[in-house]
Amino acid sequence: RGLDAMVGRERELSSLTSGLAETLAGRGRLVFLVSGEPGIGKTRLADEFAVVAEAKGLAVRIGHCFQEGVPFLPFVEMLERFVDGIAEPEQLRRQLAQEASELARLLPKLRRILPDLPPALDLPAPQARRHLFNCFFDFVARSATEQPTLMIVEDLHWADDSTLALLDHLAQRIADLPVMLLGTYRDAEIDVTRGLAKTLEDLLRGRIATRLKLKGLPRDDVATMLGRLSGKSAPAEVVEEIFAETEGNPFFVEELFRHLDEEHRLYNSAGEFHSSFKIAELEVPESVRLVVTRRLERLNETTRRMLATAATIGRFFTFELLEAVSGSDGDSLMECIAEAEGAGLVYSLTEAPKARFQFSHELVRQAVLSRLSSALRQKLHLEVAEAIERIYSINPESPHAETLDDYVADLAHHYSRGGDREKAVQYLQLAAQQAAQRSATSVAIDQLTNALRILKSLPKTAQRDQQELILQMMLGPLLIATKGNASQEVEQTYLRARELAQLLNATSQQFPSLFGLRSVYLVRGELLRAHELSQQLVSLAESENDTEHLLEARVALGNTFYLQGALKQGHTQFEEALGIYDPKRHRSHAFVYVYDPGVFCLARIVTTLPALGYVDLTLKKTRDLLALAREVSHPPSLVLALMSACEFYLFRRETDPANEPSEWAMRVAEENGLANFLGQATIDSGATLAQKGQTSEGISRIRQGLAACRATGAVLFRPFFLSFLADAYLRAEQLTEGLAVVDEALSLVSQTQERFHEAELWRLKGELARQTGLECLPEAENCLRKAIAVARSQEARFWELRATTSLARLLRDTNRRDEVRPMLAEIYNWFTEGFDTADLKDAKALLDELQT
């Protein structure tokens, strides 16, 4: 590959080498990011450093990113090379240990080599991604304890978001491991994507990474390069001219030298450099691409055709695939490759298990492609795709061999570029499924979006509509995972899916499309629309006689009843759903509908029962809820259960038992990347602190949680969470702030119809007004009477008791105790349980006082 030894870069190589001692000592956190323009020598520096690292006993693992954006590709390359280096399956099983099942999501052929691997855990997208990352890290950590490791990721400017996320995950965690990470990337503004920019900023700002920016070589190093390339000392005039033309870019220096040499412009008849040498007087290409293009023109036509095919395949290509596409006999093809190698355009990868080649630089490949007409390029893409199908659709003789599953992303790319729209849609769907299985959500969304765009250009048929329905239903959950239920994109996806399902009379797809659409309106706080769709879900499930769908329909309808303040109707739906629910049979529902349905129903019952006045019964239901959530072991369901338990104990005004589930919920949400749940759990934790008397810290934490929830676009439960903030302000005697918060919450109640906590909001407003001053007492009384009226309309006996107790205090203090004593006695005497709660004790004490 050009020069036998690297010229210059001694300082940069020394910086890298100095880190090896710390890596070998297990003091990691050594991440080097090598940046610069194309051809500046990033890969060459990485190669030289790899040689140094290997000499010091490190295992070197190299992976590449490509423009096609295959998820996790550099890490898949590293894993594949590791797996291919172990011949015995049992040894491989020991090396991969318990991570093997998860790593098979990255490298499907692992299941061909180890066919008895258990299935990977079926987790929702955020948890699945985190689990995959943790397993890959554990694999790296275990390998590194056996042999210190250098991991090189080339061309990060082409990395997809999933690859960057895994890179960041590893970089953040290698502090105590004998592992060094090195990444290369182009730093021109057009090459740095938003995802790469954020990753770089996080790593550099956190002082986890060191950046080495490569610039052009100085004149002396250019002189050294020319001396090595020519075998003789170059005069200062020649050095100056080439340095000025190339600005010291090593690749350009080498390519320009080759061009001038081949054009016989460098030497006189005696074989010495021309004494007078002016680039401006020569017909010299102005860019690397033009220099390479000139060199391509000197190759024979057959070799140029071979390179065109190879460039269409990609930066790397195998002899097997090249032969299949070109249709040439092996000997002729080898002659062409030999000519291209002699010209320095490609080189062989001798360490590969089968004949494999690489372009000497991506700029060379781009120069080859730029010479092709659009028609020829399209034809070559089709030929490459068809050859891949021919070669890899055959059952492999060895489990290590590649199959069509390993090439679905390549096939999607080539058929898309080749103009075969049906095949492009087919493979884009398969590639999206594979990306989703690897938790590469953004890549899967891009592939599905491309498939839908291509599909729209096909003639309108029932088959096309069926294909679109499948794609839309795949896209919906992925958009929810990345953009949240409330986004416009999610709404449009499920609206279109519902339209297609109705058009095709596809009953099996009508339910999930309706369910997805309902989730949009629910999270946005558009409860009337969500309630209407929930009723449609029940009718549809009953008409289908489908108990699986009926279970989720009852849950959905119960939830919208509950949120609108129809507590008894909601409770009835939850109990009916629990009558259908079987923990083992319905465990998979959590991965389709976000929560385990049994946990969800019990969580809502734990909220509705105490409001209806059955506080002691709720204690048992809370224990049942937590036990089921532990058994199900599904992170979102567990967090929901813990938050519901915390809120029940806060309802009882028992802060010690509320504290443990709130802190546990925050840990689970944070560990599993559940942003919205973390915000809600943070609010619960803040409310617990406020009830304990730590009002300042509690208010701060509640506001932090509210901001986190708002960032997701969710409106659902905001009035409820604002009631915690208003209560904290009341306890802190910050009455103006409290009144502003409760007014915001009541305004949202009016907009969204989320009324299950409305009575408590009116009571809080009354208490805040009562403590503001005598002039506000009439308003306070009106608010408390409003709270009582709302509670009675909802049959929410506990809210009625609490509001009546507050009103009794106000009337007592204004010498109207006879007016309120019968009201308080009536609601207190309704209760048959819960007499150990703070609210019932307060009511009893006040009744006794009023009767004296």
Q: Order of strands across the biggest sheet? A: 2-3-4-1-5
H/I helix tally: 41
Mean pLDDT reading: 90
Low-pLDDT windows of residues: none
Q: Approximately how much beta-strand content do the residues carry?
A: under 5%
Distance between the termini: 102 Å
Helix content: 55-70%
Largest sheet: 5 strands, parallel
Shape: elongated
Query: What is Rg?
Result: 34 Å
Explain what the structure shows.
The protein has a five-stranded parallel beta sheet with strand order 2-3-4-1-5, sandwiched between helices. The chain starts with 9 loop residues before the first helix and ends with a helix. Helices cover 68% and strands 5% of the residues. The mean pLDDT is 90. The protein is mainly alpha-helical and 852 residues long. It is elongated. Helix 8 links the parallel strand 3 and strand 4 (179-186).
